[in-house]
Specification:
Cytidine Deaminase, domain 2; five-stranded mixed sheet; alpha+beta; about 150 residues; two-stranded antiparallel sheet; disordered N terminus; about 25% strand; about 25% helix
Length: about 150
């Protein structure tokens, strides 16, 4: 993983590291709003839509643990409710675990909104700032909407 980021509608591009830093800062801020009375493990996410809008989310726990919702999904759901259907990048911040990446369920939900023409960039917090990877690296051979057409 390299210090790279994604600009709306573009592929990975080292010139867009500032976009990754900005998304990560928003994810870090969102982690402060997490509702985590049980795990004490806050996570924040900030995603970038194809149109350039940013949506944030934080994990929300529930006493019935299976009903807990991850930060990445709360951000995706907010974007989807606002009418967005393509997510080009998402940053994840888990202050207690650097480089924490989206869980399997979040990877599958992200895949639902992955653009057809470019790889979705995943920005992960690291000791020296951030590292990036792609959704394809995290969820190879994914099943998604294009498999149903």
């Amino acid at each position: 993983m390299d210090d790279e980021a994604l600009e709306p509608g573009k592929g990975l591009d080292k010139r867009n590291a500032e976009t990754a830093r900005s998304l990560l800062a928003k994810a870090q801020a969102a982690a402060n709003s997490a509702y985590v009375p049980y795990s004490k493990f806050p996570v924040g996410a900030a995603l970038l839509t194809a149109s350039g809008e940013v949506f944030t989310g934080a994990n929300v726990e529930n006493a019935s643990y299976g009903l807990t919702v991850c930060a990445e999904r709360t951000a995706v759901f907010a974007a989807a409710l606002a009418g967005h259907r393509e997510i080009v990048a998402i940053a994840v911040s888990a202050p207690r675990a650097l480089r924490a990446s989206p869980c399997g369920a979040c990877r599958q939900v992200l895949n639902e909104f992955a653009p057809a023409q470019v790889e979705m960039t995943i920005v992960l917090e690291s000791e020296d700032g951030f590292k990036t990877t792609t959704l394809g690296n995290l969820l190879p051979m994914a099943f998604g909407p294009r498999d149903l057409t």
